[in-house]
Amino acid sequence: MSTPLITADLVAVDLDATDRDDATRQLIELLTAAGRVTDADGFHADVRAREAQMATGMPGGVGLPHARSAHVVEPSLAVGKLRQGVDWGAPDGPARLVFLIAAPDGAHGDHLKILAALARRLIHESFRTSLLEASDPATVADIVSREVVVS
Amino acid sequence: MKFVAVSSCPTGIAHTYMAAEALEVAGRAAGHEVHVETQGAAGSTPLDPQLIADADGVIFAADLEVKDKERFAGKPVVDVGVKKAVHDPNGVLAQAVAAVESGVVPAAAPGGATAAGGPVTKVDKNAGVGTRVRQWLMTGVSYMIPFVAAGGILIALGFMVAQAAWGENGPVEVTQVPVADLVGSFNALSGKDWAVLLFRTGGLAFGFLVPVLSGFIAYAIADRPGLVPGFVGGAIAGAINAGFLGGLATGFIGGFLALWISRWKVPKGVRGVMPVVVVPLLSSLLTGLIMFVIIGRPIAGLMEGLTGWLNGLSGANLFLLGAILGAMMGFDLGGPINKVAYVFATTGLATEGLEAGATQFRIMAAVMGAGMVAPLAMALATTVRKRLFTHAEQENGKAAWLLGLSFISEGAIPFAAADPWRVIVSSVVGSTVTGAMIMSLGSELRAPHGGVWVSPLISNALGFLLAVAVGMVVMAVVVIALKSMKPNPIVEAEQAADAQVAAREPQTV
């Protein structure tokens, strides 16, 4: 794969967000700054639309906003660890780990398989715990790159 | 259990895969095998048709229309949204287990004509040995029950119509009309012809009892490869007079042979013909070898020995002889021991120059009465203690009334095959009582079969019926007591599933 799904500059380990939308916006800024998203507002609208269909709060305190969008350059993952959990619509409580998945409209098989593998890893508590315990962006990016492999 | 599942979600990026992983992880934790087809954006790999065929149930964790849904036709399905599978995979699995155990299969979707799935089994691959043996037996029994009910009721109707058409000797006459007459000159206005048609059709349906029992026990053990040796073995059990107990044996023998052979490591060239040629051929041959050569001889010897012994008893106390014949009738319900007692009685009938009061007539009455006890008692037991029986057994119990009244002992085979020792012990007790009572009361019977439909041919018919009723109550009490001592896990699982379904469905008045 040409570009890694995640790098340290796409991780915010101490995110201070008021709500779901705010947390999403801050992660989108990271993607925009890295040049992976061309239009922050446009992408944000796409994510909101997806979120409106069905909240993406997952079990174990995870928010997983995502969208396939024309404003995305490369399949990317931004990770935010929230100082204070915010409600992501999951029945078991607020989200403290937020994964923003950005997929280009025309993403092809290999890219999507990586994202599928990520979604599968998120079910495992050990994976979530190791991310929650990681204290710096590089470690987070490392764990994700190491653990999320296409099987 | 084994499940196959399909997951999908609107974007096809996140929920689809989380649901898949959640179900697989929860399945592993609960000891189930779960295979998920993710119909998501990353492209989906269709489930191996063999996995679908082997699955006990299907889970749709899909927010989009499931692709190629007809692949899953004939399997119990739970349809939950993708979100429920992500957040509560254990709940979804529990629902799926309940669906499998209740055995409810949704009607085939319109247009979905090609069913990929095989017949459903009641087998949970992770249960303990005792439970699995019981599940194998139950699978065989559940497929046999419709044959018992259909065949038995046809025969009983044949007797009834024959009695109307010929008069009191009808149930005997009907059995003596050759099939060629039926084929050559069936007259739709003739009651006799209808009686023969009913009797013959029912008799042929009955011919499948033991093969179906044996075949589906083997199927439960070895899946598809088990069918051929199981069915063939069941037919051999019939040929060597081994009865349903022989059929239980061939079910296990054929099933394990097929399982064993289908696991052989074979060269690639042979692999293709394994399921179609090699496995059925070898497993059937070995089953035949075991049955004919090893099991056939002792059974024949046993029957010969018992017959000689009975003939030697002729001068003995009649009460005792009635008790012995009754016990033999109740023991294996059409098997070798039952057959010896029955043939002993019918051979006696053929003695020339018999006059009223002859012992042979009293023996025939005792044998027939004892042979009516088991199905009647099981019918009674399923009526008064529903909770001790599976749904299929309860249904079979209803047919067993008519079968018992018609002296079709096979009506009790499904119960005996599912739970041999409890049913056989109680059957022997009840039939012994009836046999001894009839001999003491002195009822005589001049017909070899027919049940209540030949009651005009029974002297002291009231005493005869009383003796049957007493044996029936005795056996029902014993079987209820034995079954109450140790609950049957399959019955309990069914009831739990019922309760769940009842709780889920809003009560409508």
UniProtKB/TrEMBL annotation, chain A:
The main place the protein resides is cytoplasm
Instruction: List the InterPro entries hit by this protein, alphabetically.
Output: PTrfase/Anion_transptr, PTS_EIIA_type-2_dom, PTS_IIA_fruc, PTS_SugarTrans_NitroReg
Which compartments is it annotated to reside in? Cytoplasm
* Keyword tags: Phosphoprotein, Phosphotransferase system, Sugar transport, Transferase, Transport
Q: Could you tell me which residue ranges the PTS EIIA type-2 domain spans?
A: 4-147
One Pfam family here:
PTS_EIIA_2
What GO MF annotations does this protein's record show? protein-N(PI)-phosphohistidine-sugar phosphotransferase activity
Q: Name one GO cellular component term.
A: cytoplasm
Q: Which GO terms describe its biological process?
A: phosphoenolpyruvate-dependent sugar phosphotransferase system
Top-level lineage group = Bacteria
Protein name stated in the entry: PTS fructose transporter subunit IIA
The encoding gene: fruB
TrEMBL record, chain B:
- According to the entry, every stretch annotated as the PTS EIIB type-2 domain falls at 1-98
Q: Which GO terms describe its cellular component?
A: plasma membrane
Q: Which UniProt keywords apply?
A: Cell membrane, Kinase, Membrane, Phosphoprotein, Phosphotransferase system, Sugar transport, Transferase, Transmembrane, Transmembrane helix, Transport
Among SUPFAM superfamilies, the record links this protein to: PTS system IIB component-like
Q: Name one GO biological process term.
A: phosphoenolpyruvate-dependent sugar phosphotransferase system
Q: Name one GO molecular function term.
A: kinase activity
Q: Which Pfam families match?
A: PTS_EIIC, PTS_IIB
Q: How does it sit in the membrane?
A: Multi-pass membrane protein
PTS EIIC type-2 domain span: 133-492
Mind telling me which InterPro entries this protein's record contains? Answer: Bacterial_PTS_Sugar_Transport, PTS_EIIB-like_sf, PTS_EIIB_2, PTS_EIIB_2/3, PTS_EIIC, PTS_EIIC_2, PTS_IIB_fruc, PTS_IIC_fruc
Q: Which NCBIfam families match?
A: FRU, PTS_IIC_fructo
| Protein name, per record | PTS fructose transporter subunit IIBC
Task: Print the organism lineage.
Answer: Bacteria, Bacillati, Actinomycetota, Actinomycetes, Micrococcales
